[in-house]
Amino acid sequence: MVDDGSGDETAELVKAAAAVDPSVRLLETHHGGKAHALVHGMQSARGRIVLFADMDQATPIAEAAALLPWFDRGFDIVIGSRGLERQHAPVSRRAISYGQLLARHLILGFSDIVDTQCGFKAFRREIVEPLIARLVVYRNAMEKQATGPRLSPGFDVELLYAARALGYSIKEVPVRWDHRRGRQTNLLRDCVRGVSDLLAIRSAARRGGYTVHSGKSAPRDE
Please, which residues have CB within 8 angstroms of residue 59's CB and are 6 or more apart in sequence? Predict the structure, then answer.
C-alpha cells in the first residue's frame, strides 16, 4: 500500500497488518496526489502483474480474477471498466463521467475505451518503467508536492494514451463498482481540471511527446 502523506491513522493500521502478514507492505511518501502515489506504487511492485486499486474498495479486490486471465491471452494492460453505469453515484458524479467521456473522444479520439478512469488497472511488470518514462504531462509525478486533495484526473488517460503510442495492447473488462462517498465533488473545478489535462496531453502528442523515435522498436500490439 502507498500512503500519500495521509494525516489519519492509515499508515499505523497498515503497519499493524504488516506485522502479522509479511505480504503486506507499506510505502510512505510525501503528499503529492493520486499520480504521485500510483507511480511510486507501480515502480515498487514486485509481482509479475502490477495492479492498482482504490483503497475504498469501490471495486472489490476480488475483481482482479476478472482481469488476470486476459494476460494469458497476450494483452499487456487490462483495465477494469464500469461501462456507462455509476451505481449509487450522485448526479454530479455521473455528469462529470459522461462529460469526460465526450471530452476524451473529441480531444484525443479515445472512442473505443469507454472507461479510462476506473481505479482498477493491471499491467505486465516489464512494461511499467517504459510506460512511466513515456509520460509527459505527469512526468514529474514522483517529485511533486501537493496540498489538499489532488486527484490528477488526466493521469489514467495519459497512461493509456502513452501505452497506445508504444504499441501496448489494452483490454477493457467489466468489473463491479459501487460509489463510495469521499471528497465533495466540485463540478466546475473538476471539469476544468479534467479538460485542461486532456488539452495538455493533446498538445504533447502534437509535439511528438509520445512518439517512439526511429531506431527504437515499439512493443508488440496484439
Answer: 53, 80, 118, 119, 120, 175, 176, 177
Output the nine-digit C-alpha cell for 172.
477493457
- Give the H or E element holding residue 81: strand 77-81
Residues 6+ apart with CB under 8 A from 191: 96, 99
Residues written for the chain = 222
Give 4-23 pLDDT, tens digit per residue.
Answer: 888 888 889 889 988 999 88
* pTM metric for this prediction: 0.84
Number of domains comprising the chain = 1
Residue pLDDT, tens place only, 169-185 = 999 999 998 876 655 55
- The grid cell for 50 is 502490477
Instruction: Please check whether residue 52 is in contact with residue 119, taking contact to mean a CB–CB distance below 8 angstroms.
Output: yes
* DSSP at 15: H
* CATH code of the domain in which 165 resides: 3.90.550.10
Residue span of the structural domain in which 89 resides: 48-139+148-206
Q: How many CB atoms lie within 10 A of CB 37?
A: 23
